[in-house]
UniProtKB/TrEMBL annotation:
Lineage: Eukaryota, Viridiplantae, Streptophyta, Embryophyta, Tracheophyta
Function of the molecule: Component of the Mediator complex, a coactivator involved in the regulated transcription of nearly all RNA polymerase II-dependent genes. Mediator functions as a bridge to convey information from gene-specific regulatory proteins to the basal RNA polymerase II transcription machinery. Mediator is recruited to promoters by direct interactions with regulatory proteins and serves as a scaffold for the assembly of a functional pre-initiation complex with RNA polymerase II and the general transcription factors.
Chief place of localization: nucleus
InterPro entries the record matches: Mediator_Med11 (IPR019404)
Signal peptide (residue range): none
Species: Stylosanthes scabra
Record keywords, A-Z: Activator, Nucleus, Transcription, Transcription regulation
Pfam family, one: Med11
Protein name: Mediator of RNA polymerase II transcription subunit 11
Length: 115
């Protein structure tokens, strides 16, 4: 089974939530750096921005996968209820047609017997 199948959807969404918190912390760190009285340190801002963008990309991919997974979820996919009911309905229709044919045959036999 793949790694996505080994964890539940809720666990994967909790991981996304943790990434969102980290993104907000990074954004706050950049804001603190930009507000520094000594001026922003370019390398710190650049590293935070790179990590921020990578986390945003990871979040988008994870959410897209979860949405796709939810859309593909078919809880009754292997259920044979529909086909079973369809077979029972067909069986009842055949019984009805057979009884009507028997009645028609009886009418024809009665007609020929009366002649």
């Amino acid at each position: 089974m793949d790694s996505q199948g080994q964890t539940t959807s809720l666990q994967r969404l909790q991981n996304v939530e943790k990434r969102i918190v980290k993104v907000l912390e990074l954004a706050g760190g950049v804001m603190d750096e930009l507000a520094s009285p000594l001026g922003p340190r370019k390398d710190v801002v650049q590293n935070h921005c790179l990590e921020f963008m990578q986390l945003i990309k990871d979040i988008q991919v994870a959410l897209r996968d979860e949405i796709k997974s939810a859309c593909e979820y078919r809880p009754f996919e292997k259920c044979d209820y529909g086909s079973t009911i369809a077979n029972e309905i067909c069986y009842k229709k055949v019984e009805l047609i057979m009884s009507q044919l028997d009645a028609m045959k009886q009418t024809i036999d009665d007609y020929h017997a009366a002649e």
